[in-house]
Amino acid sequence: MPKTSFLSRRLRPVRTLLGLLLRRPLVGTSIIPLLSDGRMVLILRRDDELWGLPGGLVDWGEDIAASAKREMLEETGLTITRIDKLVGVYSQPSRDPRFHAICVTVAAQVEGTFQTGDPDEVLAVKAFRIDELPSAQLAHDHARQLEDYFAGKTVLY
């Protein structure tokens, strides 16, 4: 049986932990934000210059609702006043071209003043009437999320 070095034995738990963490999908949230006048808020993403739903990764120690509220405020300057419903859980490995991410999508009522919080992520924030949504210019699987929302579905993909 080959001898393992002291350093190798000490690093084994770190390598094991990193292997477990890096081989797991990331968990995030998307918000379908609705203003009181019925318009929907989208962000223009810097990475692909497509419109998308606000959202992002859940931080350590944070639940989905808290993550949605934080991401909404960070990306748009708007506050979630009420989460109306769970639209779905989207877990297809190819749904996000950057990495395998599971997305929990909620519809929510929002209010406040538009403010682009992180210019490295968001180029613009805009409210659209439902009949004016840029459906052909949406990031990732956001068109599907909106389709499920408009159909009144709660899905698990």
Q: How would you explain this protein's 3D organization?
A:
With 157 residues, the protein is α/β, with parallel strands linked by helices. It has a single domain (25-156), classed as Nucleoside Triphosphate Pyrophosphohydrolase, CATH 3.90.79. The protein contains three helices and eight strands. The chain has helices spanning 6-22, 64-76, 142-150; strands at residues 26-34, 40-45, 51-52, 55-57, 78-90, 101-112, 122-128, 155-156. The strands form two sheets. A five-stranded mixed β-sheet has the order 4-1-6-5-8, sandwiched between helices. β2 (40-45) and β3 (51-52) form a beta hairpin. The longest helix is centred in the first third of the chain and has 17 residues, at 6-22. The chain is elongated. It starts with 5 loop residues before the first helix and ends with a strand. The mean pLDDT is 92.
